[in-house]
Design brief:
InterPro entries: Glyas_Bleomycin-R_OHBP_Dase, Glyoxalase-like_dom. It comes from Deinococcus sp. VB142. With 208 residues, this protein is mainly β. The protein has 3 helices and 12 strands. The chain has one domain: 2,3-Dihydroxybiphenyl 1,2-Dioxygenase, domain 1, CATH 3.10.180. The strands form 2 sheets. The protein has an 8-stranded mixed sheet. A hairpin with a 4-residue loop joins strand 2 and strand 3. The chain is globular, with a radius of gyration of 16 Å. The chain starts with 9 loop residues before the first strand and ends with a strand.
């Protein structure tokens, strides 16, 4: 994966969702042959996560609703509250989204100031909590502290390729061009939004 320029966007992290954090961790650890690292809680959205370095400033996140947290005052991010997502995750954890790091995010209704522990960041989150373009359009993030990947041990896992299928491929390509995105991303036409990531592991390539 190539890195973004100082004035452009780059991959920050991939988002895998699961019904429970334990289920998501076990699924990824079984497929990738490595141990996920502890993440933490997101008090604004009632979720928690675990993390895995992908090298080159990127990481993988598995996220789930935190049953011990109070319900948030707004819909949870990544569509986690929707019946569609809950039905999807009933079949097992899934890669649902990706996040691009950008140089700046001007104030806007969908730009939120968020935190987890001593991490601070800005992120685009639709008011209804939906996945942008069904998950293929990246959320945009600006880290105000060093990002989590700076504290993660190198897992040896690397992203080889990210594929994004959408009924509107030209619109997605135009967005990535406007963001000056640098990375190994393939955009193609598909009847419904879909995304997949090929990861290199010690066992060989693994497709999520």
């Amino acid at each position: 994966m190539t890195g973004g320029s100082v004035d452009g966007a780059r991959l920050d992290h991939l988002v895998v969702a699961a019904r429970t954090l334990d289920e998501g961790r076990a699924w990824l650890e079984g497929r990738l042959g490595v141990t996920m690292q502890p993440g933490g809680e997101h008090p604004q959205f009632g979720t928690h996560n675990a993390l895995l370095s992908l090298g080159e400033g990127a990481y993988l996140e598995v996220i789930a609703v935190n049953p011990a947290a109070p319900a948030p005052p707004r819909p949870r991010w990544f569509g986690l509250d929707t019946p569609e997502m809950q039905q999807r995750l009933a079949a097992g954890p899934a890669l649902i989204h990706w996040v691009a790091a950008v140089p700046d995010l001007p104030p806007a209704p969908d730009v939120l100031e968020l935190s987890r522990g001593d991490f601070r960041w800005k992120l685009t989150v639709p008011a209804d909590g939906s996945l942008p373009a069904g998950g293929v359009q990246p959320s945009q993030i600006v880290w105000e502290t060093p990002p989590p990947v700076t504290r993660l041990p190198d897992s040896g896992i690397r992203l080889l390729h990210l594929r994004l299928g959408t009924p509107q491929p030209d619109a997605l390509r135009e967005l990535l061009t406007r963001l000056n995105f640098a990375g190994e991303v393939e955009v193609y036409e598909a009847p419904q939004p879909e995304l997949s990531a090929q990861l290199q592991t010690e066992r060989g390539p693994v497709l999520l």
